Amino acid sequence: MRCEQDMVSELNYDGAVLKEKRHLYLLTLHWMSIERENSDAVAEESDVIIKSMEALQPHSSLKQLVVDGYPGGRFASWFHSLTNIVNLILSHCDKCQHLPPLDHLPFLKSLEVSGLRNLEHISEDMVKDFASDEMMSAASPSTTFFPSLESFV
Length: 153
Hints:
It holds the Pfam family LRR_R13L1-DRL21. InterPro entries: LRR_dom_sf, LRR_R13L1-DRL21. The chain has one domain. It is 19% helix and 18% strand. The chain contains three helices and six strands, in the order E-E-H-E-E-E-H-H-E.
């Protein structure tokens, strides 16, 4: 699904069409960037962008999600409902400052994070779990944090 910034205001924020698609297993959300010079328009647009991302909530059965070029400052609150996700790719989300909470994804096997130039915050729990000796040891038993994770790029 391609999302042009000029069209996001046309989305029906109450009509969650993707949320009803329980047989949708792969979703790619790609935003096409349009440069803005007016800072008031950018601030106003930021709220619209976040609302558009919230409106694009997929069904919890989703297995793979690609978010590319998302221009919002934070990810949607529905990330916590993607408990069946296996592959997650977040790329070129230039304005995102916070990674969504990812500690509830028991089936996650591959996580790719690239091009998040303004990323300032990663969950403290996520950092502790990735830095722990247990997580770094190939011979260690699965932890409750990403117990299926095979790849982190």
